[in-house]
Amino acid sequence: MMVLCEGLYGFDNASLWGIGKSESADLFSCKNGRKLGDTANDLIKISDSLNIIIVSTSNEIIKVSNQGKIVSSYQVKGPGHFLKKACNVNDSLIAITDLYGDKVYVFNHVAMSLDSLNITNLCAPDGIAYGEGYLVIANSGYGVFRKDELNAGTITIYDVNTKSSRFVKTGINPQNVTYDQSTKRWMIQYAHLTTMPDSTGGLVVLNQAFTELYHLRGQYMGTQVRKLEYIYALCGKSIIRINDSGSVLDTVLVNDTRNQWYRIGLIQNRLTICNARNYTLPGSVLLLNDQSTMIEREISVGVNPCVLIGVD
Fold first, then answer.
1. What gap in Å lies between CA 34 and CA 236, rounded to an integer?
2. Residue 229: is it exposed, middle or buried by C-beta count within 10 angstroms (0-12/13-18/19+)?
3. Gyration radius of the chain's alpha carbons
4. For FRET with 14, which of 37, 106, 167, 212 sits at 20 to 30 Å CA-CA?
């Protein structure tokens, strides 16, 4: 497994860790003799042997092998950028959001070339996902900072074939988008605003026609994962299991520690938890049992682990 750790903004301590059967290690610095950078926000697989890391403050797109070795890199030049999230579009293209630049880029990781999509009036785009010819983009409004601007608190639905786009209202401060391939559904996670005590956040689930199927309120965090017939989500101090109709929510595991669980993932059909501890100390990855009801193993990694992927 490889684990991307965000680090702390301004501390230049993002890291990429590898986890084997019995140990973990900081792969990137070991393999490349340099730091990963400041605030790394996404890691996606682009093939069986290659991966892309998005480093936000330096606006660097880094292609690495499964061993963490740099294959090539690309840097977006100039001020006013903050690359945030990425998703695969096809075998050679990924889409990347620019939180500060109000843009979505298409990056050809074979040619190592960058272009931007012609989508006007994006508002602090954050999470992004691709499915069935559409890109769905979360317009976060950058939390409290731009929440009253045009298209804050919406998703943009962009048709890749026709190059047309439309905006659909969602909860305040949408941050993450998940596409569930098996049901062809979209899940939009939006967050709590500290200036609005009654805004708890939530999860909006849309069908293939982008019609709302159900809407759950709660302190949901990050993206969701499917395991067999259920969707699993991190909600506050608990992991929640949701059936496909959204009518049954079960709590499968409660965080009864002071640690801050930050994200969940799925590796070889087992749930994983990115444990950020207190968001300043080095964190860990928690591997759950087959039933997702208990922690079987804890592995130390860097500060603020946020994305975990399986590699060969």
1. 35
2. exposed
3. 18
4. 106
Rounded CA gap, 40 and 208, in Å?
Answer: 31
The confidence band for 193, taking pLDDT boundaries of 50, 70 and 90, is confident
pLDDT digits (tens, 9 = 90+) for 147-170: 999 999 999 999 999 999 999 999
Residue 99 structure tokens: 């939180």
Question: How far is 261 from 278, CA to CA, in rounded Å?
Answer: 9
Backbone φ, ψ for residue 30 (5° rounding): -65, -45
CB atoms within 10 A of CB 167: 18
CA distance 42 to 58: 13
Residue whose token pair is 């409290």: 144
Whether the full predicted model's pTM is greater than 0.90, yes or no, is: yes
Three-class SS state of 36: coil
* pLDDT, tens digit, 9 for 90 and up, residues 37-50: 999 999 999 999 99
Question: What distance in Å separates the CA atoms of residue 268 and residue 276, rounded to the nearest whole number?
Answer: 22
pLDDT at 191 over 90: yes
Q: Scanning the structure block, which residue is given the tokens 């968001």?
A: 279
Give the tokens for residue 174. 């949408």
Give the Cα separation of 144 and 172 in Å (integer).
9
* Total length of the chain: 312
pLDDT at 29 over 70: yes
